[in-house]
Fold this protein.
Amino acid sequence: MSFFSLLLLAVGLSMDAFAVAVCKGLALKKINLGHALIVGLWFGGFQALMPLIGYFLGAQFKDAINAYAHWIAFGLLTLIGSNMIREAVFDKDEPETDSALSVRSMLPLAVATSIDALAVGVTFAFLEVNIYRSILLIGVTTCLLSMAGVKAGSLFGAKYERKAEILGGVILILLGVHTLIEHLL
């Protein structure tokens, strides 16, 4: 996987975290760099951890289904992307986000926004990417975009939240299609 494709994947995966970070920015009365950094580290850390776990899980099955790896990657990325778009378009429930930055508040949000990254990690095992470079880029990208999301939430509100999730879904679907085409040609 090229650096550019990996960067697009990192941006796509980070859109859920970005959307929740926007909500955190809305909920916080006054934000500072510390608030944004806490949110960024939680989301970036889990977005890096989950693909690593998925990679090691996927590596267990790699030899058994290696001939179908590109189809699996395509299917998972398309499913994840489609789900992100569906949730952004059809889920009218606003996420309940409070201003707390405690472990009790942030842990469930970090896990929930990084579940997609677990599935992507499984595909990494089949695509033979450099997992450590990948998780570093995903984690840093998510951290920075989450920090920006906190600031954006405090400035602009939830105006762009759904659009960010749709963009993330489209990016993941396009990466799935790219992976499939790359292996079929």
